[in-house]
Amino acid sequence: MYKKLNLVMLVSLLVLQLSGCSKSDSTPEKEAIRPVRTVTVVLQNAVNTREFSGVVKSNRRVDLAFRVGGTLSELPAREGDHVKQNQVLARLDQTDFEIQLKAMQADFDRSKGDFDRAKTLYERNILSRSDYQKLESQFYIAEAQLEKAQQDLAYATILAPFEGYITKRHVENFSEIAPRSPVLTLMDLNSLLITIEVPESVMIQAQREGMRPEMYATFDGHESSQFPLEIREVAAQPNTGTQTYPVTLALPPIRTFNVLPGMSAVVQVRPFEKNDDSTDVAYLPTQAVLADSQGHYVFVAVPSQDGYAVIERRPVEVGDISAFGIQITGGLSGGEEVVTAGMSKLTPEMHVLLMDKN
Known about the structure:
- About 25% of the residues lie in helices and about 35% in strands.
- By secondary structure, it is α+β, with helices and mostly antiparallel strands.
- Strand 14 and strand 15 (about 220-230) form a beta hairpin.
- Helix 2 (about 95-125) runs antiparallel to helix 3 (about 130-155).
């Protein structure tokens, strides 16, 4: 009987242990919050939007040269160097210029002494007027020669006229340099311009009284980033070959990636006048828009009260694809956050963390 009782107790203990393990194993783990990268929806008017190809150029570019000739003795500046205003960039051998300056200084001192004595004698009527004028002329000639020698010594050094970058070295150190021969090219890369060619039809609309278009630039590899432009110059005469008008646009400083002269840009000219009957559209990166048998859709991250966001699948209507991305003509509101990466791992109602866009 005791054996029977022990067997029953043993079976009961095994059942309890198995039950406990089953409950422990079935307890769900807390799901990790996945961070997501998003882009903010910006609605804009779709009427008369035009795109033009542009080329970046520097607003300030100068070929630096010596105004005198000589042997190059210092050339510390290298291509790509950032230089400050008035920084020494190149210098000729100073020996001949310093010797000439000393000679002109001595000649000036002698002429000035002779002229000062002549002036005193002339005022006392001891020296004739012709002799006085001769010494006066010699003094002014010596003064001019001294100033020229001082200038030649100063011209033997090239200083940076403004802050910028050395984009080209035209000569090597210790070379014989002719006057006004280019030595370095300096560009201000913080002040950039974009030039585009605009056809007559657009120019006619742009020149209406009070019409000012909105203009934005994008660059290859950064199509989702738009940079506002300001009109700097508009040519009054078209190019003879293309009958298009060159327009120069000012580009704001860009800190997120390098933009250099010679690069290509796409300039989007938005409506010259607002049409209330037109449709507001948005532009999204092409990878943010997905498609299946039900049509095109995106994942919208809707902010929640717990500080996170909840994923919502949103059907959208799409338009053309351009350098600015894919056009969204319906389904989104301004200010909403659309996920742009990792959509294959997302499901509706999933909680996510919005990544800092900076």
